[in-house]
Amino acid sequence: MHPKKNTAAAAAGALTLAITLTACGPSITSGAPDDAEAASVDRLQAPATESPRGEITIWDRSGDLFNVFDAVIDDFNEVYPDITVHHEAVDIDAKLQNTLITGTDVPDGVFLDDAKVAGFSEYLWDLSDVLAPYTDDIAPQKIDVNSLDGAIHGVPFDLDPGLLFYNETALTDAGVDATQIETYDDLLEAAREYQEAVPGSAPIHLEQSAFLGQLQLEMYAGQLGTSIADENGELRLDSDEYRQVLGWLDTVNQEGLGTRAEYLSPSDVGALESGDQVFYPWAIWFSFAPEQQLTETSGDWRAMPLPAWEDGGARSGAMGGSSFVLPKDGENADLAWLFYEFLMFHEDGYRAVWGENDTYPNGLATSIPAYSPAADPANPLFGPVQGLGGQDLWTTAVEAGEQIPGGAPAPAWWTGAVDYLGTNVQRMYDGDMTPDEVIEQSTADIQTNLVDRQ
Description:
Blueprint: H1 8-11, E1 54-60, H2 64-79, E2 83-89, H3 92-102, E3 109-113, H4 114-120, H5 128-131, H6 140-145, E4 147-148, E5 151-152, E6 155-156, E7 158-159, E8 162-167, H7 168-173, H8 184-197, E9 204-207, H9 210-223, H10 240-254, E10 258-261, H11 266-274, E11 279-283, H12 288-292, E12 301-305, E13 322-325, H13 333-345, H14 347-354, E14 368-369, H15 393-401, H16 414-429, H17 435-451
Parallel strand pairs: 1-2, 1-3, 9-10
Antiparallel strand pairs: 3-13, 4-5, 6-13, 7-14, 8-11, 8-12
C-alpha cells in the first residue's frame, strides 16, 4: 500500500465485478511427471528450465512505489539475465477490469489492492504451488485475504499493521502518559484526561470519509478476529464484535472526544498541528504525515501498538495492503512469478524494496514485509523515523504485525458496502443512528442489494 494521502483510499479499496466470462491462459507445467496431478489448469507452475528466457509486462501504479520496483529490475536481471521486464505505470483501477474481460494485451503481473483480489479471482492464476515453499513464513492474514475456495490468488507484498500514533509532546505537557494505554478503555480515559487539561480539544481521530471509515472499522474488527464477511463471503456484520467497536466509536463521538475529519485533509492537519487531536489509530502508513506533512509537530509524534479490546487481546489489526496477481491470459505468467519471487522472498529483492534506495534514502517506512524472514525485528530494513522523534518504528511495527489475527478475503461487493455501512457509520456520528441501527440497517441493505445480487 502506498502511503501518500492522494492514493491512500485507492490503495485500500475493493471492487464489485459482474464477472461473466471464463478466463483461460497458457498451460504452464513444471514438466515433472509426479507434478501432473497438482498442476491443474488453474494452478501456476514455475518454469522448468534452469535458464528461463522471455519477456514480461508488469503493471504498477505510478508514483514512488513504481520507482522503487523499477529500480529492482537490474538486480533481478543479475539473477535472470534472459528475462526482459517491461515495467508500465498504469491506472489499474481504470484499465484492469476491461483488459481482463476482453483478454486483450493482458499483463503478466499486476500490483493490486488486497481488497480487490477476490473480485478478480476468476481471471487469476492459483498460486498455491509456487507459493508452497514460502507459505508457512507469510503472515497468516495475508494468505487469508488472498485466498478463495482453496486457491491463493496473490503474492503477498506488504503488511500494514494498525498502530496508535500519538503526540507525545502535547500529551506530556498535559500530564498524560500515553505509554500506559493498553486497552481501548484506557484510551478513552487518556482522552478525557487530555481534554480536561486542554479544554476544547477533541483528542481521538474519527474518520469522516465513508470509505476510509469502513476500512478503519475493519481494522478494529480484525483485532477481534472478524470482518464484514467470512471466508465463504457470507455477511457477518451482526455480531457482538461489531457492536463493541461501534459502541466505542459512538462513545468517543457522544462525549465530544473525537475530531471528525477526513484523513489528512486541511481540517485534519490543522487539528493535528494545533494539539487538538493527539491520538490517531491508523495503519503504519500514517507515518508519512509527521515525516512530510505535519511540519509544525514533526518529531513530536510517536507510535505504539493499538490498544486491545480486552486485556490480553490482539494489539494490532490490518488496515489495507496490496499483493501481486498473475492473470491467466498473460503470455508469460510463469516468468512474472520469478520476478515477484525475487522481489518478495529473496534477500536482495526485499532489501532493495524496503531498504535504503534512491526514492527512500532512509528506507520504505510506510509498511513492513509480509514475509517473516524479511520482517526480522533484529535486522531492520528501514532506519529510525525522524518525524517520530527518531523512533525505531521498524521494531514497533514488526511486533505489532505479529499480533494481527488471521482474516478472510474481502468480498467482491466490499466497495459497494461503503454506500451502506460506511455511510451509516457517518450517520451515527451525525446522531441519526445508534450502533444497533447501523448494524441492522447495513446488514439488511448489503444482503439485499449486494450479496443476493451476486
